[in-house]
Each structure stands twice: as structure tokens, then as C-alpha cells.
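Re: [ENG-882] Designed sequences occasionally contain unexpected residues at chain ends

Forwarding the minimal case from QA. C-alpha cells:
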């Protein structure tokens, strides 16, 4: 039978005589080749894997125009490659002739395809749209006769992230599931959104960001360059003219004076929306156990007290003092008020500390005893203070020692 078909094709090629139709029966061509030219070089051959074309044979498709529509018929037109015109929104296609059928749509414009249960679009969730650009190729595969999978090849060569426009930084959906992410190159302003030189005062810190920091959200990070050390335990921060909120550390603990250490020091704060406060992430005095006590210095003509702060990290105590000084009436100088939590089990002698004697600051010595008393000396040796004139501890003096 195959030989007869080949003879008829040769007859058409050589004599222009039509094949007699209608054919009356299906005939097997197993093991034979169907030749398409007189030299028998272009053939279709059956095999166990299907139908094979000879090396010199090609199938050339037809480029057929189909207008976009709500459910366009891309199947009945001649050819498998479709010039898809218009900008109408397609929510599906007309029924395919069978599962496995496929068409290639070359979009002529901004045609829209809506993803859904029967319109499965690569990279687009159900209910959202893919808007094509001119030249985009959309491969349509019929999973069933009524359900289709679309795989997009953007003309730009970029991944399918839906419509991409210039002059907008990619920031994800603006609102709702249907929002479309957009793009542009980063500029210097984008890199400055979380850092600024601080203004205001040491304990009422402000900062102006460019662009502005906007409505505060939970976990928002901002950085600033300090103008001074904080002097109180409750400094505040107010970015871009907003409400001043207290700065805390280690989950809401109060700062120690000097946690923001000095002018030009760099700090990062994170906003806690539930508690409307800023958490300082890099305090100067770390994140160990912290507290305060009332320190009283002796040896003055009048009683001098002040609130001192402490932190304990890895069993090491750091004491941070306010100015504790006055006019002397004796050469002895001691500090009392240590709590049990910060009293060492043995005496620690010769600890360096800045002291004041007769109005002059110098590196002196502190002995911290197991009796909760600190004894101060002028100079590194056991030198006593001058009998008259101002003496004691200047503001910011620090003493560190081990609890053991």
C-alpha cells in the first residue's frame, strides 16, 4: 500500500493528477516510508518511537493571526504559531482538539492573560494577570481540552516577574495580592534610607532621613551618628519629626549614662511597635545584668550622694559613676552603697580609676572590698588625698573588677 501511495505522490509531482478521494479504508504503513519528492530523499518513516523525518525533511509551520479575546479560539486556525494581536484580557481559551495540543502565541501588543483554575500561568498566582509586552512568546499547552498551561518567554530576556517599568525600585507588591512589583536601578538616595547624622540633644535625639523613614513599622532599623553621650537613662529618638520614643536595650532595660558613648559614635536602633520604643542594638556597655545603686562618698564637709550604674558580664562588674566630689575635710575618701549583687567575695586592690584631688583629675587607685566599701587613693600607690580642696570622682569614672 505504501508503494501505491508513493506512486500517487510521484504522479502528483510529475503529472499534476489528483489522488482519488475519498479513501475508503485505513491501511497500515508499518515498516514503510512515505516519500515526498521524486528522488525519495524527503520521507516520513514509522518507528517504534513514532514518526521520524528524514535528515532532509522539515515541517514548516504557518504564522496565523488570531485576535485577543476573553476566550480566543487559537486551535482551529491553520498553523501552530499564532500572531496574537490586541490587548483584550483572556481568562481561558476555546476547547482544544485534544489533550497535548499546543500553540505558540507571539504577542503583538500588551495582551492580558488572567491566571485561574483552567489558565495556569508560570509565575502568576490565581486571580492575577500577566500583561505581555510586544514580542513576548506565550507557549500554550492543553493539559485537558479545557485546562491550559502557559509558559512565558519575555522578549526582554528577563524572568517573568510581570510588568516591569523604569524609575521604580523593586519593593514587592504595593498592596494586595494583585499588586505588580516594579523596578529601577538603585540610586544614592536608596542607600541612605536607614542612616543619618543625628540632631537634637544628647538625650532627645532627632534625625532626618532621605527619603523619609515613613510610618514606623515593627522591626524597622535606623542608624544615626551621635552628637553627644547620653546623660540620662531614658534618652528618646524621634526620626523625621515623629513622636519621640524612649531608647532602651536588652529587651526594654533602661540605658546607662554613656551607652551612647560620644559624639561621632555610630548607633543602630530597631523599633518595637508593640511597646512603642526604640531598642539600641549596640550599647556601649553591652547586654549583661544591669542595675543601679545609691553611692555615698565620705570625707567631705557635706554628704555627697549620686546614682551609679553597674553591668555584670561574665562575672566582671563595671561601675559607672556620676560626679561624686566635694570639699575635703580629711585625707580619707571612701564610697559606700554597693549591693550584695556587686560585692566581690575577696578584696580587689589597685584598680585604676580617674580621681579628682584639689580640682585636678589624675589616674588614681581603687580598692573594692568584700565589705561593700570602695577606698580611693590619689595616684597608683596608696597616696592619701589633700586635706583641703575638691576631691572625689569626676563624672564618667569607671571601676571594673571580678566578683570572685
Amino acid at each position: 500500500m505504501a508503494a501505491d501511495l508513493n506512486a500517487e505522490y510521484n504522479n502528483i509531482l510529475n503529472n499534476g493528477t489528483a489522488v482519488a478521494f475519498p479513501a475508503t479504508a485505513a491501511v497500515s504503513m508499518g515498516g514503510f516510508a512515505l516519500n515526498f519528492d521524486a528522488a525519495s530523499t524527503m520521507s516520513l518513516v514509522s518507528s517504534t518511537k513514532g514518526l521520524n523525518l528524514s535528515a532532509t525533511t522539515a515541517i514548516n509551520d504557518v504564522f496565523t493571526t488570531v485576535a485577543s479575546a476573553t476566550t480566543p479560539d487559537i486551535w482551529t486556525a491553520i498553523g501552530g504559531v499564532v500572531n496574537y494581536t490586541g490587548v483584550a484580557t483572556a481568562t481561558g481559551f476555546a476547547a482544544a482538539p485534544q489533550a497535548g495540543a499546543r500553540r505558540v502565541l507571539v504577542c503583538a501588543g500588551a495582551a492580558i492573560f488572567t491566571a485561574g483554575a483552567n489558565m495556569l500561568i508560570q509565575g502568576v498566582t490565581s486571580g492575577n494577570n500577566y500583561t505581555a509586552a510586544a514580542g513576548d512568546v506565550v507557549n500554550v499547552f492543553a493539559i485537558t481540552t479545557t485546562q491550559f498551561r502557559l509558559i512565558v518567554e519575555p522578549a526582554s530576556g528577563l524572568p517573568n516577574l510581570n510588568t516591569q517599568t523604569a524609575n521604580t525600585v523593586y519593593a514587592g507588591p504595593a498592596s494586595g495580592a494583585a499588586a505588580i512589583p516594579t523596578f529601577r536601578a538603585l540610586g544614592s538616595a536608596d542607600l541612605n534610607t536607614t542612616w543619618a547624622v543625628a540632631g537634637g540633644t544628647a538625650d532627645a535625639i532627632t534625625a532626618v532621613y532621605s527619603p523619609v523613614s515613613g510610618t514606623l513599622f515593627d522591626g524597622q532599623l535606623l542608624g544615626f551618628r551621635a552628637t553627644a553621650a547620653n546623660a540620662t537613662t531614658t534618652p528618646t529618638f524621634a526620626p523625621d519629626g515623629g513622636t519621640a520614643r524612649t531608647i532602651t536595650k536588652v529587651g526594654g532595660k533602661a540605658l546607662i549614662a554613656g551607652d551612647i558613648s560620644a559624639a561621632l559614635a555610630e548607633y543602630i536602633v530597631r523599633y518595637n511597635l508593640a511597646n512603642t520604643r526604640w531598642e539600641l542594638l549596640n550599647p556601649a556597655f553591652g547586654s549583661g545584668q544591669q542595675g543601679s545603686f545609691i553611692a555615698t562618698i565620705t570625707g567631705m564637709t557635706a554628704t555627697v550622694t549620686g546614682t551609679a550604674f553597674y553591668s555584670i558580664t561574665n562575672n566582671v562588674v563595671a561601675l559607672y559613676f556620676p560626679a561624686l566630689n566635694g570639699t575635703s575635710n580629711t585625707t580619707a575618701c571612701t564610697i559606700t552603697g554597693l549591693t550584695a549583687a556587686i560585692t566581690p567575695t575577696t578584696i580587689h586592690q589597685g584598680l585604676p580609676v580617674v580621681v579628682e584631688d584639689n580640682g585636678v583629675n589624675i589616674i588614681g587607685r581603687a580598692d573594692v572590698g568584700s565589705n561593700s566599701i570602695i577606698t580611693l587613693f590619689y595616684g597608683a600607690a596608696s597616696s592619701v588625698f589633700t586635706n583641703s580642696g575638691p576631691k572625689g570622682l569626676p563624672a564618667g569614672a569607671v571601676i571594673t573588677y571580678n566578683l570572685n
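QA comment: On inspection the terminal residues look reasonable. The chain has two helices and 29 strands. Proposing we downgrade this to a documentation issue.
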